[in-house]
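Quick one: structure for this chain?
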Amino acid sequence: MNTKLCEVKPGTIIPFGGMDWIVLESEGNMTRLLAKEFIGDMPFDEDNSNNWTNSSLRAYLNGEFLETLAANGANPNAFLQDTYSLIADDGLDDYGSSVDCVGLLSVDQYRKHRRIISNLDDWWWLITPYSVKSNGYSHPVRYVRSDGTLSYGSAAGGYGWVRPALTLKSNIFLSTESELSKYTNTELLEELMRRNHAETL
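Got it. Here's what it folds into:
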């Protein structure tokens, strides 16, 4: 069964590039996705910069990780570059923005889609710097705790889990193995219960 990406409801889990993604929203010809699970743990930046533009994590996601998605069947023509806001948590916009194929959610995006973003069993990075002003010993970045609340930590001080975000063309078709792939988690459960009930009659 083929379904256009723009027809898929926010909150739906879809396969792409060998992993599962949560559909966050469609806007014009762009559909934004968030990884359902972690892809690994690594620092935001090995040199302790909280500026995404310079970060080692950005280089990895838009290099090796992007190649891994393609190697697992992701159509390179499906990707769209998106603009990621780097406005700091205190409102300073010194870092401007970044245009990438793969990024991380900002604090504002996380809040916007909070109701359809599942909690995971550890914390994970956001793209938002805590401030563009260093306090002399750390360069903090915002992150999401396992309970869904927000905090911040040093860009290189400890390893944070990575949950990538990316943007695809809304008019691409998703080839699904099962018609159940079009349902959200709640709808999938309801559909399975309905079918089980029908089979027992």
